[in-house]
Amino acid sequence: MSEVFEGYERQYCELSTNLSRKCHSASLLPHGEEKKEKLVEIKSGMDEADVLIRKMDLEARSLQPSAKAVCLSKLREYKSDLNQLKKEFKRVSSPDANQSTREELMESGMADVHAVSADQSGRLAMSMERLDQSSDRIRESRRLMLETEEVAISVVENLSQQRQTLLHAHSKLQGVDDAIDKSKKVLTAMSRRMTRNKWIVGSVIVALILAIILIISYKLSH
């Protein structure tokens, strides 16, 4: 799964948990400046949650089909969760919210309060579970990243050793090339000497033959 998606997911889960708590605390406040400030704060958080949902949507649609299906399934849950938060915010921000709450309490006692608390507790528990799952995935991603880093370091070390071996072999080859060049020079010099010696020997033989011919001619003439 995409680390970018997991980052957005973690941010959303934390934000959803905080918004749920703020909605619950705002529902207990009487109408006044304090409640207005709380509602403005919640509205800002809702906008931020909408932005995160859109970011997750874009990221999920850019993934491979297998990962895309999983991310879109989670995204549907988060959209449903955000819609519930918006309904809760609308109920809390309604001008008749406190009056309705008092009437309901007078008619049915504390039953609805417990039901709301139970619903919020369930949502909180679900958000915490998602946070734990996201944390586990992040830890697993970090573990894989560390293992990959170790493998990469090992590969780099092996490549460095191979490079040193190649450099050493290259230096040896250069030494061999130098020795071959020297041998070629020696052989060339020897070849030249042999050629010169052949010419000298040939010249001596020709001179001897001429001398013998002259001697024989001289004897025959006398």
Descriptive account of the structure:
About 3% of the residues have low confidence. With 222 residues, this protein is mainly α. It is built from 5 helices and no strands.
What topology emerges from the helices and strands here?
Blueprint lengths: L2 H25 L5 H29 L3 H29 L3 H12 L2 H111 L1
Number of helices: 5
Number of E-state strands: 0
Helix percent reads over 70%
Sheet of most strands = none
- Low-confidence runs: 108-113
**Overall average residue pLDDT:** 81
What is the terminal-to-terminal distance? 121 Å
The value of Rg in angstroms is 47 Å
* Order of helix and strand elements from N to C terminus: HHHHH
Return the structural class. mainly alpha
Highlighted features:
rod-shaped, mainly alpha, 222 residues, 0% strand
